[in-house]
């Protein structure tokens, strides 16, 4: 694909190593070949904005892989939106957090019989090696003053609900609650199969060990942690009562819409100021209306992170 790829430090119990894909403008630069992966195109003194995505922690939720594929395909394409995003943001993606479970055909658990998405608080390097390694990587980045880990999104599939939707966290600060609703609202505008009305924000005790809940408590209040869910079977488009079955292509289209929403988010908050023509309609995301290829380097300036949220109830 032309992206940078690195191995997560710890292999699984079956010696499988999950790859962590990195996407930014440096992967396309021959001059950056000897620079540290991921950050070489940015100014040394500049804070690096990072978006971190994971998927397939529950191995049976295969739609998550197609969403990740859509995100990756779009980010490495030559579309103007993708080029601007690569110039300003580092994307780190772990497409398969539970490769042993996927290989064995498990629905929810790892080789050792653990639901890895309940062990983020204290993962064992022996029993949950991939989770332990990914958590270490995130904690490392969070402690680096030159890195701003802005988003963590864990991709899942849902067996009973329709459409795509998100779970977010609940906080005491009202302003932080409103800020957290901005990204799902923007995604709802971009993706006809995404439902903001099905999106919910909670602090359910039984979900305390999930990536969304744990990292929501670990990271600072300028970081946003979500679970992105998508139906196994169908979605309802606005104004329609007839369910539309999901296909591999429509899952990947949702992934592309997730990727483009990051640019809407950063532009809304003046964190990306770029004059390139990056408007993108839903129709232009159908099929292969964009081309993969090398991006180009461009330094981006980071502004103050003040998010304009809505005060509507949700």
TrEMBL record:
Matches recorded under PROSITE patterns: PEPTIDASE_M14 (PS52035)
Family label: Belongs to the peptidase M14 family.
Biased composition (Polar residues): 279-297
Signal peptide span: none
Organism phylogeny: Eukaryota, Metazoa, Chordata, Craniata, Vertebrata
Domain Peptidase M14: 1-266
Active site (catalytic residues): 229
CDD domains, alphabetized: M14_AGBL4_like (cd06908)
Feature: compositional bias, Basic and acidic residues: 298-314
Top-rank taxon, per record: Eukaryota
Cofactor requirements of the protein: Zn(2+)
Name assigned to this protein: Peptidase M14 domain-containing protein
Annotated region (Disordered), positions in chain: 1-41, 279-314
Any one GO biological process: proteolysis
Gene Ontology molecular function: any one: zinc ion binding
InterPro entries, per database record: Cytosolic_carboxypeptidase (IPR050821), Peptidase_M14 (IPR000834)
Matches recorded under Pfam families: Peptidase_M14
